[in-house]
C-alpha cells in the first residue's frame, strides 16, 4: 500500500492509544517503504524527511498529498495557500516558484513584523514566507531562511536571484543546530516544520538562543488534540506529511517554557480541519490534529540589567509580544 489513506485501519481505530511523541522511536521504512520501526535514530528521521522534501523541491509538489514519502509528489498547487490564510496580494507578491503550497497557516499574519527587523524562518522551503517578510521589514531589515534540504535552499536562492532580493539569505542547516549567531534575530517564524523535527525541545532551545532579548516567536504548526491511533503514529507517510510527528499542546507549552520563553499563547484553529482532511482523504487525520498559531517571547536577559536594555540601541526592550500584524499587499522586496 503506498498511501496513508490505505495504511489507516478505520475498523481498528484505537482512540485510547498512548500518544508517543518521542520521534526518535520512529522512521525506518519497512518493506515497501511505508511503515516506521521503533528503533530509528534522529538522523534516520531527518534523512527520510529530507528525501521527501528534496522530491517536493524538484517537482514543486505539495507537502501533504496522498503519495507516500520518498515517492514523486504531484505538482504543487500554489492556490492551496489561500485556504491557509494568505491573501491574493500576498500570493502574487512573491517570486514565481517560491509558493509550493506547503504549510498549515500564515505565520506572517501573527508576527507583526516591523521595518528594520531581522527575521528568521525555520524550514524556509522555497522561500515563500521569507519573501513576504522581506516586504514587511523593508530594505533596512534582513531575512534569514534555514532549511536542511539542499534542493530547497538552491530553489530559494534561485528565486531570490530572480527577484533581485538582496536582504534575504538562505542557509543550509538543521533547525536543531541553527547556523545563526547568538542574540541576532528579532523575530522567528515557521510554517508547519517543527512537527517534523525529531528533537523539538532542541529546536525551541536554539530559537531562544538566537533571539535577541525581547524577541518573539510566531509560528504555525500542527499539534495533537486527540491521541493518535498506533497505525497513524507508525506511518512514514503520516510522519513526513505533518501528522505523526506532531506534539500535544501541553508538550509544546512545556518545551517552550523549559527553553526560557514567556507569554506563551497557543491558538487552535478549528477551521484547519477542512484542509487537514484533504492531506490524507479518508484517514480521519483531522480528528486528531489541528493547526495552531503559536506565539511566545524571549524576556529581557538579566545580564542586560533590570530594564532589559538592547545592546544595539540601549532602548528598553519589551517583555511581551506585540499586537497582530496587518495583512495587506506588500511587494516582495519592499
State the distance separating the first and last CA atoms: 47 Å
- Helix % is 25-40%
Q: Sum up the overall morphology in one term.
A: globular
Question: How many helices in DSSP terms?
Answer: 11
Biggest β-sheet description:
8 strands, mixed
Strand content: 15-25%
Number of domains: 1
Any idea what the CATH architecture is? 3-Layer(aba) Sandwich
Query: CATH superfamily name?
Result: Vaccinia Virus protein VP39
**What is the total tally of β strands?**
8
Overall pLDDT score: 75
Question: Which fold name fills CATH's third level, the topology?
Answer: Rossmann fold
Evaluate the radius of gyration. Answer: 19 Å
Low-pLDDT segments, ≥5 res: 1-39, 62-76, 303-334
**Could you state the order of secondary-structure elements as H and E?**
HHHHEHEHEEHEHHEHEHE
| CATH level 1 name | Alpha Beta
| Protein structure class | alpha/beta
Helix-strand layout with pairing:
Blueprint lengths: L3 H4 L34 H18 L28 H5 L15 H4 L6 E5 L5 H10 L4 E6 L2 H14 L4 E5 L12 E7 L8 H11 E14 L5 H4 L2 H5 L6 E2 H11 L1 E9 L3 H7 L9 E10 L36
Could you please describe the fold and organization of this structure?
This protein has 11 helices and 8 strands. It is an alpha/beta fold. The protein has a single domain, classed as Vaccinia Virus protein VP39 (Rossmann fold, 3-Layer(aba) Sandwich). Strands 1, 2, 3, 4, 5, 6, 7 and 8 form an 8-stranded mixed beta sheet that branches. It is globular and about 50 Å long.
